[in-house]
Amino acid sequence: MTIFEATCSAPVNIAVVKYWGKNPEKIALNLPTNSSLSVTLSQDQLHSKTTIRASADFTSDRLWLNGHEESIEKNKRLVTCLRETRALRASMEDKDAALPKISGLNIHVCSENNFPTAAGLASSASGYACLVYTLAQLFQLPLDASDLSIIARQGSGSACRSMFGGFVAWEMGSKDDGSDSKAVQIAPETHWPDLQAMICVVSDAKKGTSSTEGMQLTVKTSALLQHRIKDVVPKRMEEMIKAIQDKDFPTFADLTMKDSNQFHAVCLDTYPPIFYLNDISRAIIRIVTEYNKDGIKAAYTFDAGPNAVIYAPEKNMAEIYALLSHYFPGHQFDDSLGLLKNNAAPS
Ligand code: 2P0
């Protein structure tokens, strides 16, 4: 019996203008309340890897995540990505009788992350980008990365940005069906090789409040979010794009830190409040602030968890590593600090 198979890997992205909030009337579509922008990291150290097989021998769709079998049916977002890609394959098969009939076969999905899942390290971003990219390879879909980002977005919002390497904007779009809420590349992975990212794993525990739950509560209760959406992010997106195009690190860093701070302020303004930073996260903020006192040399950013990502020009990285190792001797994240070049796309 023929088995059809595809294996791909996809990178993590770390936002410098954060996505937080989705249209409450269209939760399933993951339509964001603001545009966002991220840097895609190298796949060398952090990535998701997915193998998908389709066969007439398989009696049901099945899923294994990091070695454990999980229910596909309970995972509505995965079912959506599968339904969308299968429908596209089915319409290709309708038009071309010579194509193998794969769309009607059951599939087995096996996906792994080589880093802590759900600890605010963008595991859903690389995971869903990888799922959709691998489905597109399996079904031979003639879609470009922006088209695929629209499907990946429905798996997890931030996943749409992992469809490209380099510097990527997620344009929020304005259409009700989400057909223009997609990722676009602002600059390729070769654009700014001097910019590096360091991941500081403060904790690899699963986060207390999931992003989806947190965002819904924030949209319902935070007045600060409304200010952010209307008065801050549109201008910040323009300034960030220009800073990236100009390779202007001080401006890039200033905007990155302010946006991380405002995202966590919005979490605090949520009622009841959401706390993602811990004492070590706050100590890292103070260390970077002190390090920058005579001119900006590094930028911190934190997602929905306590782990820090520090962006800096390559020449500063050894100093930053030494500084953090000095202040946190023997802390577990000493072993996890790594330098990552920003140079990847799904493959
Ligand atoms: C981001 N985060 O822009 C922001 C910053 C966390 C903080 O995107 O509900 O896992 O799957 O669409 O994409 C995390 O949210 O949320 C996230 P869903 P997702 O990277």
Automatic annotation (TrEMBL):
Annotated catalysed reactions: (R)-5-diphosphomevalonate + ATP = isopentenyl diphosphate + ADP + phosphate + CO2
Pfam families documented for this protein: MDD_C, MVD-like_N
EC number assigned by the record: 4.1.1.33
InterPro entries, per the entry: GHMP_kinase_C_sf, Mev_decarb, Mev_diP_decarb, MVD-like_N, Mvd1_C, Ribosomal_Su5_D2-typ_SF, Ribsml_uS5_D2-typ_fold_subgr
Entry's Gene Ontology molecular function annotations: ATP binding; diphosphomevalonate decarboxylase activity
UniProtKB keywords: ATP-binding, Lipid biosynthesis, Lipid metabolism, Lyase, Nucleotide-binding, Steroid biosynthesis, Steroid metabolism, Sterol biosynthesis, Sterol metabolism
Domain of life from the UniProt record: Eukaryota
Residue ranges that the Swiss-Prot or TrEMBL entry lists as coiled coil: none
GO biological processes: isopentenyl diphosphate biosynthetic process, mevalonate pathway; sterol biosynthetic process
Domain Mvd1 C-terminal: 197-347
GO CC list: cytosol
Name listed for the protein in its UniProt record: Diphosphomevalonate decarboxylase
Lineage of origin: Eukaryota, Fungi, Fungi incertae sedis, Mucoromycota, Mortierellomycotina
